Amino acid sequence: MPTSLLDTPYDYDPLEEAGAIVGSSVVELLPANTCMVAWAMERSNYLAIESCGKCVPCRLGVKRIAGLLEGIVSDLGVSGDLDVLDEFASYVPNGSLCGFGVQAPNPLRTAKHYWPDHFQMHIEEQQCPTGTCVPVRAHRFVTKHVLP
């Protein structure tokens, strides 16, 4: 959540109204120069590793989210990537068998909701808004995705 919401009471209902969840009760404070696209990528990569792999939407969807974010962080993203990310952010929780998959797209959703300018600058200007991102890929992977 951005600094403008720091006064939000740490309770279920107020956090939900602000677009957050209590989750594991971890509060992460980030430096002001954090690129939220890179932050979402790091969280998505972690979640892709932690997925048990039992259900396809979580197993493949979270990996696909992480891969798209890697491309955007590496300034290889295109405007259509944001639409594909939105599709996966709704597809993964709707098809997952447990709470892990339901919550897995939350870092992406949070970053896109509160810091859309970070995504736009990476894609439209091919540069990091904070100047902190290091490319993690040299080539854009183009794959066909099929969502219901």
Care to describe what's here?
The chain is mostly helical. It has a domain at about 35-135: de novo design (two linked rop proteins). It has seven helices and no strands. It has helices at about 10-15, 35-50, 55-75, 80-95, 100-105, 105-115, 115-125. Helix 2 (about 35-50) packs antiparallel against helix 6 (about 105-115) and helix 6 packs across helix 7 (about 115-125). The relative contact order is 0.18.
Please outline the helices and strands.
Layout: H1 12-17, H2 36-50, H3 56-73, H4 80-95, H5 99-103, H6 106-114, H7 116-124
Query: Radius of gyration over alpha carbons?
Result: 15 Å
The major beta sheet can be summarized as: none
CATH superfamily of the domain at 34-133: NADH-ubiquinone oxidoreductase 51kDa subunit, iron-sulphur binding domain
CATH architecture of the domain at 34-133: Up-down Bundle
Low-confidence stretches: none
| Strand count | 0
Along the chain, the helix and strand elements come as: HHHHHHH
Span between termini: 31 Å
Q: Choose one word for the global shape.
A: globular
Task: From the 3D structure, determine the CATH topology of the domain at 34-133.
Answer: de novo design (two linked rop proteins)
Q: Note the total helix count.
A: 7
Structural class, judged by helices and strands?
mainly alpha
The helical percent reads 40-55%
Question: Kindly state the mean pLDDT as a whole number?
Answer: 86
Percent of sequence in beta strands = under 5%
The CATH C-level name of the domain at 34-133 is: Mainly Alpha
